[in-house]
Amino acid sequence: MGLDYTSRCQPNGRSRILPVKLHTKAKAIGVSNRLVAKITNTPISEKREDYFLIVDDIDAELDCNGYAGILTKQLPEPEKLLTPWIGGFDNMEMLKPGYIISVEQNGFTHVIYRPESHNNTLFATGRCNNNCIMCPQPPTDSEDSGWIESHLRFIDLLDADLERLCITGGEPTLLGDGLIDILKKATLRLPSTELYMLTNGRQFAAKRYVQKIAAIPDLKLLCAIPIYADVAPLHDYIVQAEGAFAETVKGLHNLARYQLPVEIRIVLHKQTIPRLLSLVEFIYRNFPFVNHVALMGLENMGYVKNNWELLWIDPLDYQDELETAVRYLHYRQMAVSIFNLQLCVLKPVLHPFARQSISDFKNIFLEQCSSCAAKDRCAGLFKSSETRHSRGIKPLTEAVLTNPFTV
Amino acid sequence: MADFLPLGAFLPKPGYQLLPFDFTRLESGEYLIVNLSGEHLILQKATFEAFTKKQLTADSDQYWNLKAKQFLLDSYDKETSEDLLASKYRTKKAFLDGFTKLHIFVTTIRCNQACQYCQVSRHNETAGEGSDMSLEVLHKSIDLMLHNPAPAVTMEFQGGESLLRFDLVKEGVLYSKEQNKTIGKQIEYVICTNLTLLTDEYLAFCEEHCVQISTSLDGPEHLHNKNRPIASADAYAIVTRNIRRTQEALGTSAVSALMTTSRESLKYPKEIVDEYLALGLRSVFVRELNPFGFAIKAKQAVGYSIAEFISFYKEMLSYILKVNRDGQTFSESYASLLLTKILTPWPVGFVDLQSPAGAGLGVIVYNYDGDVYASDESRMLAEMEDTSFRLGNVIDNSYEEIFFGETMQNIALANCNEALAGCSDCAYHIYCGADPVRHYATQRDFYGHRPTSDFCKKNMFILKYVFELITAARHDADLDRILWAWITRRDVNQMDDPGYCQ
Q1: Contacts for A65 with CB less than 8 Å, ≥ 6 apart
Q2: CA B430, CA B414: separation in Å to the nearest integer?
Q3: Strand stretches in B54-97, DSSP E
Q4: Taking the mean position of all CA atoms in its chain, how far away is CA B104?
Q5: What are the two backbone dihedrals, phi and then psi, of residue A207, each rounded to the nearest 5 degrees?
């Protein structure tokens, strides 16, 4: 398939964007189902159903028939328009022409596509069959029955030159055959786009399901699947689901059987660090076919905030374990990367394995980073780590970077 | 905020059963345990005893280590443990997939060199055409090779000295390519040659058809010339010159060399390595004398005990490690093979050390007279007038008669070390092999008698030594880097370079 699985995590010459707010609440009138459309600020005549029109002032003369909706600062007034009217935004600056947004019945508005971003995602569902103790985005039970339709519509609206699309959730595979429709549509509509799906892989324990995915012609899909321990009880404890390990392991074997590319993801925290070397050994001996292993720093969101004591270990304090694990995989020709950790907390020998992995909309640097010589190459921090982060954050000097032995 | 269950809620019920494994006590007093998939652990005596008495509990790292490698089975997630073990076992034995892959063609038994230890009982260079393969036999043999189900095969020209009849090599390559057009196998070509008769024409042909060269170099001048003399010529000068020529024409990786250890060689472990390094060779395959052919007759003059060989091998390997520590990548092929068997999940198809044994299943020999043998050693035995391992003849017999006949079935009875006395419960047997041909040659018994088997002694020793290296590498970063450079065929100086992957 010719995909390069490590470079995807390290976009070249990526422009740094300040963290962006991507959701807001508005008042919606006439929205009976979740709406997904692209924003325009100039009236158009064709395909109006694919667009939200931004309007400063709504007056009676305005021709707004046929648009997916009208976006305006004004509070919506019933009976003034036939077209859905989403208004009363406190800030409309996040709604730029070319962006795709979704609007829920309750007026919840989410930017789901920005052409300039490398981190566009399709949020497949909020539901999940795991409930990981360090989940940054805890699962919801929210109804998603109409979502598949809107996902397909979303794909129709995407620009064909999109480099990669991340499919995430929740657990995307809970959409069942709906996910297969999504993958088919994405492959057909966006033949050059790499699809990158974050999944726990449990549904892949069903061979027929994997078979269906593998049968999609010209599919360019990488499944990124977490394994948190080399033994079932420890993994199942971390994901809080008995039987999860068994299904994920079977799923990985099924993906290999149908030659679908796989990345394995390990989140580094107090529950995974003690057996990290055993875990990478387990991966090498049992899943030597995986294309990439990502060792990932913790994101201080969702459950992490509540389970801080259970999870937090300063990355400075697990550098030896991390180096051993990286070396172990690298010597065995398994591609390995470090995600979400800052160069100043990593041993210099690990710098080449570190990737700029944090999505632009939640990526920050701290004040002390401004004088750092490695800022351009560094992953930076999650916005959520602004106040809670490693004690090792400090600016690096050029001398340190060119001579790894000075640290 | 969800309520989270504690780890205790996910623990297995007390009690476990042992999954199959073999073990041995190491000199350190620790225990090496090895299972079907080739995974191993080294346990303290107390842990080993607690483990086997089923006294470990699911709150210790030792317990998890044993569970993660499927040495024990508990109430939690039995099926996954069994599946993982099965999948790894299948992978380890995948060298069997596709059936016989190495096809050896003895295009002539004549040779221009007079090696003291010749295992194949060569005929004189001037012997008549009866010592060469006829075109009919060559073609029939190639037809058999192509009839074999393996999608990728190696066609290896052996002798005698194959360059004495380069026309047969040429015909073999061209005919197989022509016939393969409609079959589509991947064919790799190798000529085993002493390189003394090399011409530019031969090199051009090898370059055009991607033919690789495997040659013999026994060490420095006096040693090589003593072991491998040519009448009225300096064999050493010719072979080293021609190794260089071949490297220039075909690239360094297209030429490999192996050395045969004679009694004289025992004195020069370092000098032999230096000789290989000076020629830019990246590895050496250290072989002991085979108990076949002239080597048996000349045993008084060139032979040695297995203990002497082992101490030589150890000395040589220590020196090779030093060379690598000093920054030069150079490996010993036998050690690399064993390391790959022990430390990786991958299958290793090495016909001299596998179970089921390579004879017939991994390798087949088409002799110059049309007879087919189960291995190189089988035909060496035949030259000593013992045709026990003759599978048939390419003119008289069908593919089925040759590959599935009575002789092959008899070999198969003794080709799995999992079912051989003295092997089946040996801790190392997963990494070792069965060798019915050699045991028949040395002990007159397909099955062999392990306590008096040199094959067993040698491999047990080398495996123990390799395990010592593996254990030492846990606390020796340089050694770890060297061993993995050998396994993955990378430059020892670039192992930590992040771009140097795949």
Answers
A1: A48, A82, A83
A2: 16
A3: 72-73
A4: 15
A5: -60, -40
Name the token pair of B243.
Answer: 């190794």
| Bridge partners of residue B73, in order along the sequence | B17
User: Do residues A49 and A1 make contact, with C-beta atoms less than 8 angstroms apart?
Assistant: no
A-B Cβ pairs (cutoff 8 Å, strict): 91
Query: Nearest-CA neighbor of A253 among B218, B86, B479, B394?
Result: B86
Distance from CA of A63 to the nearest CA of B (A): 47
| Count of beta carbons in the 10 Å neighbourhood of residue B293 | 21
The answer to whether A289 faces chain B, any CB pair under 8 Å, is no
| Residues B84, A133: C-beta atoms closer than 8 Å | no
In tens digits, chain B (502 residues) has pLDDT values of 458 999 999 999 999 999 999 999 999 999 999 999 999 999 999 999 999 999 999 989 999 999 999 999 999 988 999 999 999 999 999 999 999 999 999 999 999 998 888 887 888 888 888 899 999 999 999 999 999 999 999 999 998 999 999 999 999 999 999 999 999 999 999 999 999 999 999 999 999 999 999 999 999 999 999 999 998 889 999 999 999 999 999 999 999 999 999 999 999 999 999 999 999 999 999 999 887 776 677 777 788 999 999 999 999 999 999 999 999 999 999 999 999 999 999 999 899 999 999 999 999 999 999 999 999 889 888 888 899 999 999 999 999 999 999 999 999 999 999 999 999 999 999 999 999 999 998 899 999 999 999 999 999 999 999 999 999 999 999 999 999 999 999 999 999 888 643 3
Give the phi and the psi of residue A169 in degrees, each rounded to 5.
Answer: -165, -140
CB–CB contact B76 A232 (8 Å): yes
- Report the amino acid identity of residue A286: N
CA end-to-end distance (rounded Å), chain B: 44
Beta-carbon contacts of B224 under 8 Å, excluding residues fewer than 6 positions away, are: B217, B218, B235, B236, B239
Best residue of A9, A282, A286, A287 to probe chain B, by most B CBs closer than 10 Å = A286
Instruction: Note whether A233 contacts B11, CB cutoff 8 Å.
Output: yes
Q: Do B42 and B26 contact (CB within 8 A), yes or no?
A: yes
Q: Cβ contact (<8 Å) for B77 and A232?
A: yes
Per-position b or e across B28-60, b if 16+ CB within 10 A of its CB: eebbbbbbbbbbbbbbeeebbebbbeeebebee
Residue A301, class by beta-carbon neighbours within 10 Å (0-12 exposed, 13-18 middle, 19+ buried)?
middle
Name the residue type at position A320. D
User: Which 3 state secondary structure label does DSSP give A20?
Assistant: coil
For the whole model, what pTM was predicted? 0.93
Please give the angle made by the CA atoms of A195, A199 and A202, to the nearest 5 degrees. Answer: 135
Q: Are the beta carbons of B132 and B107 closer than 8 angstroms?
A: yes
Supply A239's token pair.
């994901």
Phi, psi (rounded to 5 degrees) for A14: -70, 140
List the structure tokens of A329. 């995989």
Nearest to A50 by CA among A121, A122, A154, A144: A154
Q: Which residues of A touch B61 (CB under 8 A)?
A: 274-275
**Pair B414, B436: CB distance under 8 Å:** yes
Residue B491 three-state SS: coil
- Give the integer Cα–Cα distance in Å for A260 and A223: 8
Tell me the C-alpha distance between B318 and B265, whole Å: 16
- Alpha-carbon span B230 to B225, nearest angstrom: 8
Sign of CA dihedral A256, A240, A233, A325: positive
User: Do A172 and A137 touch, CB atoms closer than 8 A?
Assistant: no
Instruction: Tell me which long-range contacts A400-407 makes (C-beta under 8 A, separation of at least 24).
Output: A400/A348, A400/A373, A401/A348, A401/A351, A401/A373, A401/A374, A404/A348, A404/A349, A404/A351, A405/A348, A407/A347, A407/A348
ipTM of the assembly? 0.94
CB contact under 8 A, A286 and B84: yes
Q: How far is CA B480 from the centre of its chain?
A: 22
